Here is the input.
Amino acid sequence: MDVLFQQWPRFMSALWLTVWMFTLVTIVSTLIGAALAILAERFGPVLGVPLRIYAWIFRGVPELVVLLICYLALPYLGLDLGSVGSAILAFTLIGIAFQSEIFRAGLASVDARMIEASRGLGMGWWLMTRRVIVPQVLRVSVPSWATFLAGNVKAFALASAVAVTEIMTVTRQTMAISKDPFTLILFAGFLYGAIASVLMVLEIVISRYLTHRYGPANGGGAA
Amino acid sequence: MALPILQIRDVTKSYNTLQVLKGISFDVLEGTVLGIIGASGSGKSTLLRCLNMLVPPTEGDILYQGQSVVSRRVDGRDVKKSERELLLYRTQVSMVFQSFNLFPHMTALENIMEAPVHVLRRPRAEVREEALALLDKVRLSHRRDQYPHRLSGGEQQRVAIARALCMRPRVLLFDEVTSALDPELKGEVLTVMRDLAAEGMTMVSVSHEMGFIRNVADEVVFMEHGVIAEKGNPKEVLGDPQTPGLQSFLKSVRD
Here is the structure.
């Protein structure tokens, strides 16, 4: 336990690093992934096919491989982002792949009759997307979005492989000077669990808000 | 003498090799009710969607107040209008759908206000006044803050009619608006439509409600295999069908 208290500040800065990296990656990849999914719907195969191939690759390749490519291979191409930078890039690339698929599925679930109704009321594409499509996609997509994030945050432990001093890195370094590895491993597990729990609570809060604001999901079925 | 607000001229519609509409022509006079009847697959829903250009015709022309809505002349050539150009037209010729198609994430009142505020860009307060008056007209004032899933089918359809009316359209299109409703709910929707007809609203209604067609429509069109097989005064056409197609159709509807 002593070593845990002794290393406490390092654990806290590692936790903070994980949290802000994860938050940044989530915001950027959600926005880009959602935008790409919407644009692919708008412009058809011209954008849709490359996006599907991209998503296929980055959903298929292990996170660790993407991380190592960004950290070890990109410098040869003249792009040295450092450990934190390459971890952010790698997880953003992966995140975009998953997010675009999540929102593509959400878009596909919107009833075609809503689109006809919108056109019938003289709504243009952008107005329809903003006012009719997106609110319905959000309600459908929040659970799969949160599920992906709860899994994704744990993959951030892999960033220790590219020398990012995140939680797992500090845990392993501390274990080397400790006689009580069990407590340290438990503590690391607790930290990841805490972040994932925040996400799961967040999902409930967002779902509640969306239900409150936009009515319950699947409320659009005919009587 | 009423003027034709809509003139349909030799309209055809093909999907690949399947020709759904095979040359349709008729006029819709201002302030009249036109009923369209026919078996499923006869092309009546497609025709209705052509009227407000949700489905652009393959050939032929549709004139609204004497102007083509299908194409415009550029340097002596006819150029098909783009979706963007059609949006304003659709606010003038508004459609009510068989399955209501209310936006599930908006309350009844929000559904009605959505397009007038965001498409026509009318002041929100003014639109709200009008939307509340329309809800009153369809007898749903007490349901204004409900989401569609909390409303019965008949209530949803009356909200959908109010939503279409709030665009202040010159023509209302009804696509089998009572077909998805239980028998006891059809009446409340038909009453609203009857009131609108009495007020002089121009209406085109695809319907299987023969009573409504007979008593409310000024003219009826019977469609069969993508063409107009019979047309005329509803009492005469329905009372004395000339073609075997209409005879058997009327028999099937009555049974």
Residues 15-164 of chain A form a domain with the MetI-like fold fold (CATH 1.10.3720.10).
